[in-house]
TrEMBL record:
This is GntR family transcriptional regulator. It comes from Anaerocolumna chitinilytica. The keyword Nucleotidyltransferase does not apply. Pfam families: FCD, GntR. GO terms for molecular function: DNA binding; DNA-binding transcription factor activity. The keyword DNA-binding applies. SMART domains: HTH_GNTR. Keywords: DNA-binding, Transcription, Transcription regulation. It comes from the Bacteria. Residues 3-71 form the HTH gntR-type domain.
Amino acid sequence: MENREYTKVIAYVKERIAKGELHSGEKLPTERELAEVLSVGRYSIREAIRIMDALGMIESRQGSGNYLIANIEKSLIESMELMLLMKEIDYCQISKLRRAIELYTYDCAFQQMSDSDLKELADITECMGNSIGDEKVLLDKKFHDKITEGSGNTLIISIMASLSSVCRRQIEEVITNSSPETAQQLMNVHEDMLRGLVIKDLSRGIQAINRHYDLIDSQVSHENN
């Protein structure tokens, strides 16, 4: 039973979270304390900690202990990267999901974004127009993150961040290696996405998002052939 007792440790941590006895950022009991409370061996404790770390439930800090976090992005990224390696999913499927989520979050942002949020998005867009290389890649990420944050949905924000991370290499290659014509087209769709929010033209923004993903997908497909 030793090799299954780690489940008792994970269940115990979840139970304490559910009861409000353990909160994000707080330190977990030590290995000795867990072993005494649950009557399980140190090996099972360490196996449970390893699994919870992989799932993004906890963070192990050298010399300090294990702390509860809520990093579902970590487990999502690792799962999707493994599925990509095993060819159970491909870039096209990830891109379709990203497109669907961004269409939804844009609608949310359209309804909820404040003037200060729009000002920040406008500043990002302006900087994008004057940037190249890695700086443009970073600004592109900030632009899309800002729209996703407009949904106010923590789960969607985490899922979108995970999806973007998994296909970050393809996105970076498109942004940094595009022809001047394609680069200008990408800039135009970002400006139209912003403009749709500013002038309250949802249709304009939705069309821009679809053009954006069509451009990215077309470039990735071309590079893979």
